[in-house]
Amino acid sequence: MHVVRFRLADDAADEITGLRARLVVAGLPVPVGRPAVTVAAAQTIPVATRTALATAVRVLALPTLWLTDLAAVAGRDEELVLGAVVDTELLAVHDAVHDVLAGRVRGPVATYLPGSWVPHCVLATRDPAAAFTALHPLRPLRAAVTALEVADTRTGETIAL
Fold first, then answer.
1. Sign of torsion, CA 28 34 40 41?
2. Are 31 and 125 contacting, i.e. CB atoms less than 8 angstroms apart?
3. Are 80 and 124 in contact (CB under 8 A)?
4. What's this model's pTM, rounded to 2 decimal places?
């Protein structure tokens, strides 16, 4: 599986890592790796498509995210996520990514397509009620997006665009 994701600024990634650390102390499992917000996913994103995406990204103004909501995402009932406020700037970048990917990837994942996407960062991978209790109340987090990257979930390889 290949994913296109927003790389968050170091300070925001560190803060989210701190939230995850609180969950680990509470005995809850968390995702491994640097926190990110997935924009698109597909079984395969070919190299030529990644090159076209890198070209398109150069002219985009990357958004700043307001991560404000502790929530669950439909179909992933065992996770607690930190949801982002959706605004026109965020949707413009999301749409631009999908314009490049349309018809050029194999096995696109429907939950990341325009109209279905709920931008978020996963905090806990089990027992969302306990995770919510461990983190509530939560102050909103402002997270600058510093880059778009493509990650291969099988190998762990990440390529900045």
1. negative
2. yes
3. yes
4. 0.95
**pLDDT, tens digit (0-9, with 9 covering 90-100), for 38-72:** 999 999 999 999 999 999 999 999 999 999 999 99
Q: Following DSSP, what letter does each residue of 92-156 receive, concatenated?
A: HHHHHHHHHHTTTSEEE-GGGSTTT---EEEEESS-HHHHHHHH-S---EEEEEEEEEEEETTT-
54-61 LR contacts (CB < 8 Å, sep 24+): 54/161, 56/96, 56/97, 56/99, 56/100, 57/97, 57/148, 57/161, 60/92, 60/93, 60/96, 61/89, 61/93
Rounded Cα distance between 108 and 2, Å, is: 9
- What are the distances in angstroms from CA 115 to CA 48, 86, 95? 26, 12, 10
Q: Which residue has the tokens 């609180």?
A: 22
Please state, in angstroms and rounded to a whole number, the distance separating the CA atoms of residues 91 and 100: 14
